Amino acid sequence: MIRLFSFLVMLFPLLTAPASAQQRDGVFASYAAYAAFVDRLIMSRDFIPLIKSLGGRDEYTEEQLIGVNAQLLTAFPVDFSNVTVFRRQDLGNGVSQEARLYWTGENYAFYYAILHQRGDELVVLNFKLNSSVEPIMKSF
Description:
Blueprint: H1 2-22, E1 27-28, H2 31-43, H3 47-56, H4 62-75, E2 82-92, E3 95-104, E4 107-118, E5 121-130, H5 134-137
Antiparallel strand pairs: 1-5, 2-3, 3-4, 4-5
């Protein structure tokens, strides 16, 4: 019985590898899955997985990610308790852009994304996170 358990433990990563290998950065099964993911990570200020998962994995070194994370944690010192999509624009052919606002008290974060609905998947093409609304609004 112990041998079987050990074998299954060793085999488990092999069985789960194809499922995780199919996960692609910036690709979600639906808008709802995307929104839940972005909201959860921004509201809890879990910025490194957010950046990596939305396409920054190959854009930043680990040291750069640590630096960006430190800057974001300084800019946003507490978790957010509120969120709203305050602007959304359909650009045609499944492409859209949106702006989200996260806040707690007087602490605000502004998020922008360009999205593309491709058949059964939603792709994040570009995103920004800022403590100022101006760079976000200039994107529209």
